[in-house]
Automatic annotation (TrEMBL):
InterPro entries assigned to the protein according to its UniProt record, in alphabetical order: Homeodomain-like_sf, HTH-type_TetR-like_transc_reg, HTH_TetR
The organism of origin for this protein: Microbacterium oleivorans
HTH tetR-type domain boundaries: 11-71
Keyword Flavoprotein applies: no
Name of protein: TetR/AcrR family transcriptional regulator
Entry's Gene Ontology molecular function annotations: DNA-binding transcription factor activity; transcription cis-regulatory region binding
DNA-binding region coordinates: 34-53
Keywords: DNA-binding
The keyword Ion transport appears for this protein: no
Origin: domain of life: Bacteria
Amino acid sequence: MGAGDEETQRHRIREIILTAASELIAEGGAAAMTTRAVAMRAGVQAPTIYRLFEDKQGLVRAVAAHVLETYARSKDVADDDDDPVVALGAAWRAHIDFGLANSGLYLLMNDGTHATRQAEHDTPSGVPDVLTTRVRAIASAGILMVPEERAVDLIRAAGDGVIRALLAARADAERMSVLSEDMLNSVLAQIVHSRGETPSRPVDALLIQLRAVTDELTGLSTAEQALLREWVGRSIDRRASSAGSAAPSDAL
């Protein structure tokens, strides 16, 4: 067997194992995905799993990537929508749908441990990457009111809360849709200002936009772009700290 044939065989076995692990999680939740059960379902020996994925957490990360990528391909997440806020809404709905349709895997990926959190961030083409891209587009449009990282964290936290609440309540489709849309609109109200509307802190909005479009400043070298991004980031952080420390006295 040549090197190409070996690589093809390796890829085929890897896909069989990932499919088996995904099915076990879907059927019985995280507890059902033991190395032994996966090996039996896939028709391989346990050492094969360790050879391909190193350990169970490596398998979890690979399963997350596999399922998220497959799911993302099956959904229209408005990649080319001209309105970045509309595109973010599509990404939000895809994320909520994924969590509800793949509850076992979602809860395993978001159980609070470093290893399973890493599973989400290691995913090359899943919804989390789509979310970061959508927030960057909003920032580039000059309508993001908070730093990109904070916006992503807020959206992720809100989405996680919605998914967990709906899974716990076993809500019907109408209730799921209403709760999801209400939460999305609440988050958007906190992080986005309407086009044509003067932001409450226009300098902050301008700095956030400048950092988002730094890579598009082709007149600058890569090093100059990185330096500009660092300077703007520092300004954003300092202004946020200043605003936070001033808030209590402003409220008096």
